[in-house]
Design a protein that fits this description.
By secondary structure, the protein is of the alpha/beta class. It contains 15 helices and 20 strands. It has a 7-stranded mixed sheet, sandwiched between helices. Strands 9-8-7-10-11-19 form a 6-stranded mixed sheet, with helices on both faces. The protein binds adenosine-5'-diphosphate. The site of adenosine-5'-diphosphate has 14 residues, from helix 7 and helix 8.
Length: 485
């Protein structure tokens, strides 16, 4: 197996220092491909969280006051270090998360693209002047940083989900305390090390690895020093965090679960639609919030499309992420595998046909075979729940109206996909889908220039694009009076 020695800090990063947890406890991080322990990491609790909040609060005024060009330069250096160290960061990411090394490297470069984007945006936080109703007054609007931000991030993109929060927050002049997921704390710590090398002032960015997310999260969401909570993860956890944040009226950004419809119309290029589906469905073994979760195929082309997809899925290489050519790595943990297993079993019991895969994979305990199910109905649990695994459920539909109705029949509203060559249909469907993001004739929609985010119970706020900065800024209206002659 390839891979270099794991070269990554394991202590908490607070106030510009690498620290053991207050209580000196550590926890093990293991490689999901092998089960092998790869690091012992500081296990922070409430007192560490308080120290990190105090550090971020202390660093806030000077960071906000720094000229935008200087903040931008630090972010740019941080970005350059990520690109220079992409191989090492990818190795760490694959070891803790399991995804194929090529995907991990892609994630690092994708994360770096947010630093590049927001390093540029930092210099363009423009204000406004508004025509005043009185001739002796002027109305000015400036945009100022929200203040200390708490970021809680998931395990499925341990680098990129953090990158797009921290790059935007720091560009805006905010400081941050980040709590990575317990399965994947190392990528966040590796980012903190690069921040130090990029010259980020102490306290501007702090990282708290922990196996006590609720305890640490409570400090972060209730402290009156924290002005904003930004979260990516499940809708249930998002609800808890929002509730906790109400006491101190914090701003919140929430990037939550999805149940993405992927609609293939009879007029689509079926080969391209299948390629799009592979790109959308199988990244990170199907463990992304924008993964195609329900694949609606117009009845007339179902058999042809199913066969194209089956062949592609059968050809996927399932192997540990560090092994050359791996396309599908392990799922993150035992709970994830048993969830996928249960969903597939209950779909089969309810009448779905297993066209490909359908069981665990021999590569290791946490591997699941890439799977295609046909004859799935919209009422089955597998079509209602976020699968978070390498399973394609094919659901037939008859008309455009029928497809839209069913696609929208969910509490979620993150990403949606449709394949059609009909321009009118492309517009009609894009506008009718109740989703924050719609991709037409493409299976990959996320990039730093575009506003990423959901509607309904998929979240609040946007990440990336100029809108991504707004989430970290407050408007201040300044009235200049007494200007008459
Ligand atoms: P998943 O089910 O995908 O693991 P979660 O929403 O549970 O999604 O996890 C996403 C992030 O939220 C992780 O960093 C996790 O530690 C954190 N988390 C989970 N529960 C809480 C909580 N009660 N308070 C704060 N953070 C939490």
């Amino acid at each position: 197996m390839a891979g270099i020695e794991l070269d990554c800090p394991t202590q908490a990063f607070i106030a510009g220092e690498w620290r053991a947890a207050d209580n000196k406890q550590v926890f093990d991080v293991s490689d999901p491909a092998t089960g092998e322990v790869i690091a012992s990491v500081a296990d922070c609790t409430a007192s560490d969280a308080q120290a990190a909040v105090d550090a971020a609060d202390g660093a806030q005024p000077a960071w906000a006051a720094m000229p935008a060009a200087a903040r931008s330069a630090v972010l740019r250096r941080w970005r350059d270090l990520m690109v220079e160290e992409a191989d090492r960061l990818a190795d760490i990411l694959t070891r803790e998360n399991g995804k194929p090394l090529a995907e991990a490297r892609g994630e690092i470069l994708y994360g770096a693209s947010y630093f590049e984007w927001f390093a540029e945006e930092a210099k363009r936080i423009y204000g406004e002047t508004i025509p005043s109703p009185a001739s002796d007054k002027r109305i000015l609007v400036i945009r100022q940083p929200v203040g200390v931000c708490a970021a809680i991030t998931p395990w499925n993109f341990p680098n990129a989900m953090l990158a797009r929060k921290v790059a935007a927050a720091l560009a805006a002049g905010c400081t941050m305390v980040a709590k990575p997921a317990e399965d994947t704390p190392l990528s966040a710590l590796a980012m903190a090390e690069l921040a130090e090398r990029a010259g980020l002032p102490a306290g501007v960015f702090n990282v708290l690895p922990t196996t006590a997310p609720a305890e640490v999260g409570e400090v972060l969401t209730t402290s009156d020093k924290v002005r904003k909570v930004t979260f990516t993860g499940s809708t249930n956890t998002g609800r808890i965090l929002m509730r906790q944040a109400t006491g101190t009226i914090k701003k919140v950004s929430m990037e939550l679960g999805g149940n993405a419809p992927f609609i293939v119309f009879e007029d689509a290029d079926l080969e391209k639609a299948a390629e799009g589906l592979m790109a959308s469905k199988f990244r990170n073994a199907g463990q992304t919030c924008v993964c195609a979760n329900r694949v609606f195929v117009q009845a007339d082309v179902m058999d042809r499309f199913a066969e194209i997809v089956r062949k592609k899925v059968a050809a996927l290489k399932v192997a540990p992420g560090l092994e050359g050519g791996s396309q599908i790595g392990p799922l993150i943990n035992a709970q994830a595998v048993s969830k996928v297993e249960t969903l597939v079993r209950s779909a089969a019991e309810a009448g779905a046909c297993i066209v490909e895969g359908g069981t665990r994979h021999a590569a290791g305990e946490l591997f699941y075979q890439p799977t295609v199910l046909s004859n799935v109905s919209h009422e089955m649990e597998i079509a209602r729940e976020e699968i978070f695994g390498p399973v394609v459920p094919l659901i037939a539909f008859d008309t455009e109206e029928d497809a839209i109705l069913r696609a929208n029949d969910t509490d979620y509203g993150l990403a949606a996909y449709a394949f059609t060559k009909d321009l009118g249909r492309a517009f009609r469907v894009s506008e009718a889908l109740e989703y924050g993001m719609v991709a037409i004739n493409d299976g990959a929609l996320s990039n730093a220039a575009a506003p990423f985010g959901g509607v309904k119970q998929s979240g609040l706020g946007r990440e990336g694009s100029s809108h991504g900065l707004d989430d970290y800024l407050e408007l201040k209206y300044i009235l200049l009076g007494g200007l008459g002659a």
